[in-house]
Amino acid sequence: MEILLSFIDLFLNLDKHLNDVIIQYGTLTYFILFAIIFCETGLVVTPFLPGDSLLFAAGAIAALGSLDVVSVCGLLISAAILGDSTNYFIGRTIGPKIFAQENVRFLNKQHLARAHEFYEKHGGKTVIFARFMPILRTFAPFVAGLGSMSYRKFISYSVFGSIIWISTFTLGGFYFGNIPIVKNNFTLVILAILVLSVMPAVIEFIKHRKKK
Question: Each residue of 51-73: pLDDT tens digit?
Fold first, then answer.
């Protein structure tokens, strides 16, 4: 229970935690942000890491001068692209072996199956749209590799999607994160971002249940 509460606190108070990280680690904060985004997009077992909300918080703090927004955007776009590529090649290399096994610890095969179904239905644009959908954002590159999508086609969608995703949320935080009404209700704003981020997946799940 304490671990769950810690995660909830982390997600809802990212601005405070990020400020603490900057105070403690200084310029190493850029590496920490890079690592989180890379892992969230590049490792199929870490879809729980903060993505959209972290980007918004980083942008808001950059507006105060604690971080350089251009460096943040550049590094995190690179992290997202590298993460996607890593996840793609993991899927292409070991994906078939994973699907052949009945029980795989730390890996939800139902999520993979649904991501595969979504990918088959919507093709390459899934790589772009999945950027704005937690969980699918993590599994889509893996499934693209598993489905033998050509890397040239995949990376073109990945680069485009990464630029849009990182820029939208980081610059959104940069320009709007310190407006008084937003700043004074930052926890609610982060919560709203989290809810809006998972809403497409919830709608898709409801549609799937209705079809059943």
Answer: 888 899 999 999 999 999 999 99
Nearest Cα residue to 30 out of 64, 69, 60: 69
Half-sphere exposure of 89 (CA within 13 A, CB side): 7
Q: pTM of the entire structure? A: 0.80
DSSP string of 103-138?
A: --TT--HHHHHHHHHHHHHHTTHHHHHGGGSTTHHH
Task: Report yes or no: 186 and 104 within 8 Å, Cβ to Cβ.
Answer: no
Q: What is the pLDDT of residues 95-137, one digit of tens each?
A: 667 666 656 555 556 666 666 666 666 667 778 878 888 778 8
CA 46/CA 55 separation, integer angstroms: 17
